[in-house]
């Protein structure tokens, strides 16, 4: 089994190394001076290999610290309950949710597909060795931070140490149940396609995790010790059953199909996404438009693709309304919650940059535009002329801003209302600035992603993402948005700065798009 794991690790590292070299070759200027023979360069392969290994090490820890920091530690101040008990409570229920969403073994990744299906490596040895490796990484990645954040929160040392092993135990129990179910039904779950039952279970876990502490109910140390001991015992039993299971090849053949493997590349325009998009297109001839020219062409596109473009926004809006309603109820029923909400709203406006980044649909909408329109239309010379490109660009910008405006209006109006109900502010202008700044953030991301799409057009004719520059800009956008979580500033100062920045950025970006889009908006090879 060790030999199989070493082979699989080399395979993963080779794939990652070649991906790094490919990404380097896609960067502006560099791609013109680096030949394809670079893949044969031993020195560069060693360099890329070192980066790959360093990333593997960083990846062990980075996700874990962000998970504990954002999902657990930073939420402790929301509650009046004991911090140590609240930390344990949140960790427990989030672990239950994560246990059913991420099994590791049933994730149909490319490396599994290449190794088991294409290279015919022993499926049991490959699956188990990599599964054990993931579980070991999980313990190593979690342990320093359960100790660090647990110590700050006042969690007993024994429980700090037990928490990572509790996570492993839950994952083992879930995996054993899925294998047991497979033996009975001959059907195995694909973790990239959670069922309604799974999503319902996750929703219940999240509700119990974040809702019960508001009622003063938490899992204390004694209860957790009982739960964790039981889980670890069941985990050991599950480990034995998983290890002794024989039909891994047969099981993997069900999930390691091309459609499943490539479905997870959501950002890369895979066939699975294209098929799903086609199902949502309205082909009814009743859709007409009284517009002319580019506006007519775009208006028909929007009407026939309204499910793809607006369905997620409608769901977001419902969730936002539910959250705002729950916050209003909390404010009216709990004086401490009311005071805390007011304090947060007055200085946490920068936090909403990250929230607006998360809910903004511009990236998905531009991807839908390419899949269902541009990947075909860009093959025609007339569609690449400056007049056509800029005409459609203007219409698309209006549509993007409109699509993202509904949740932005709800959030901006909801925050202003919550600020008023929770005690208000000394400066009445803060209500208007709070509302307008949220709208500005929404407009900023709408402009940002559309301009990115036109200046860096990342897809080829097969709707595969081929632009490393686009990925870098995407990554920087995420990093800057996430960094805003750390900033605390009064509404007036940050709100004015946000509005001014949005206006300036939009004007500059639109100028660049109008000047360069006719040259850059084309199919990649």
H/E topology pattern = HHHHHHHHHHHHHHHHHHHHH
How many individual helices? 21
Oligomer: single chain
Count of beta strands: 0
Taking all Cα atoms into account, the compactness measure Rg is: 25 Å
**Fraction of residues in H or I helices:** over 70%
Number of separate domains: 2
Strand content: under 5%
Overall pLDDT level: 81
Uncertain residue ranges: 263-273, 275-281
Largest sheet: none
Distance between the termini: 41 Å
Given helix and strand content, the structural type is mainly alpha
Indicate the overall shape.
Answer: globular
Summarize the structure.
With 525 residues, the chain is an all-alpha fold. Helix content is 76%, strand content 0%.
What does it look like?
With 525 residues, the protein is mainly α. The protein folds into two domains: 2-264, no CATH class; 299-520, no CATH class. It has helices spanning 2-25, 30-33, 42-72, 83-101, 110-118, 123-153, 157-185, 196-211, 221-244, 248-255, 258-263, 271-279, 293-304, 306-333, 335-347, 351-359, 362-377, 386-421, 429-456, 468-483, 491-520. Helix 15 runs antiparallel to helix 18 (386-421), helix 16 crosses helix 20 (468-483) and helix 18 runs antiparallel to helix 21. The longest helix has 36 residues, at 386-421. The relative contact order is 0.08. Mean pLDDT is 81; it is low at 263-273 and 275-281.
């Amino acid at each position: 089994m060790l030999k199989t794991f070493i082979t699989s690790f080399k395979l993963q590292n080779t794939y990652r190394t070649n991906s790094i070299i490919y990404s380097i070759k896609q960067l502006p200027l560099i791609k013109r001076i680096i030949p394809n023979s670079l893949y044969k360069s031993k020195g560069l392969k060693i360099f890329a290999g070192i980066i790959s290994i360093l990333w593997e090490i960083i990846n062990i820890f980075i996700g874990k610290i962000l998970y504990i920091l954002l999902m657990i530690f930073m939420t402790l101040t929301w509650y009046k309950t004991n911090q140590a008990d609240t930390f344990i409570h949140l960790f427990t229920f989030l672990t239950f949710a994560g246990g059913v969403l991420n099994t590791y073994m049933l994730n149909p990744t490319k490396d599994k597909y290449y190794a088991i299906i294409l290279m015919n490596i022993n499926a049991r040895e490959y699956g188990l060795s990599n599964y054990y490796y993931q579980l070991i990484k999980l313990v190593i990645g979690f342990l320093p931070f359960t100790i660090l954040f647990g110590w700050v929160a006042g969690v007993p040392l024994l429980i700090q140490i037990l928490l990572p092993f509790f996570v492993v135990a839950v994952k083992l129990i879930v995996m054993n149940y899925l294998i047991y179910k497979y033996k009975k039904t001959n059907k195995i779950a694909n973790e990239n396609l959670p069922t309604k039952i799974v999503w319902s279970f996750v929703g219940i876990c999240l509700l119990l995790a974040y809702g019960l502490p508001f009622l003063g109910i938490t899992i204390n140390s004694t209860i957790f010790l009982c739960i964790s001991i039981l889980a670890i015992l069941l985990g050991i039993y599950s480990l034995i059953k998983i290890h002794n299971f024989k039909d891994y090849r047969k099981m993997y053949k069900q999930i390691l199909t091309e459609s499943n493997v490539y479905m997870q590349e959501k950002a890369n325009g895979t066939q699975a996404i294209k098929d799903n998009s086609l199902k949502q297109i309205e082909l009814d001839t009743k859709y007409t438009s009284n517009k002319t020219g580019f506006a007519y062409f775009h208006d028909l596109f929007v009407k026939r693709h309204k499910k793809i473009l607006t369905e997620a926004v409608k769901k977001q809006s419902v969730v936002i309304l539910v959250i705002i309603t729950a916050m209003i109820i909390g404010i009216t029923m709990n004086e401490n919650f009311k005071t805390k909400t007011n304090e947060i709203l007055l200085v946490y406006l920068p936090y909403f940059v990250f929230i607006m980044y998360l809910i903004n649909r511009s990236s998905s909408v531009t991807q839908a535009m390419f899949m269902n329109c541009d990947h075909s239309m860009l093959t025609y010379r007339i569609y690449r002329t400056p007049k056509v490109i800029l005409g459609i660009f203007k219409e698309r910008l209006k549509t993007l801003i409109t699509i993202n405006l509904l949740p932005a209006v709800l959030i901006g109006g909801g925050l202003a209302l919550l600020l008023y109900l929770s005690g208000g502010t000394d400066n009445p202008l803060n209500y208007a600035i709070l509302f307008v700044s949220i709208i500005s953030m929404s407009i900023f991301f709408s402009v940002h992603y559309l301009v990115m799409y036109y200046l860096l057009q990342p897809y080829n004719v097969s709707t595969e993402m081929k632009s490393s520059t686009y990925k870098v800009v995407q990554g920087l956008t995420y990093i800057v948005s996430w960094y805003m979580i750390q900033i605390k500033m009064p509404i007036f100062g940050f709100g004015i700065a946000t509005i001014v920045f949005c206006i300036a950025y939009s004007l500059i970006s639109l100028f660049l798009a109008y000047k360069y889009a006719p040259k850059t908006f084309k199919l990649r090879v």
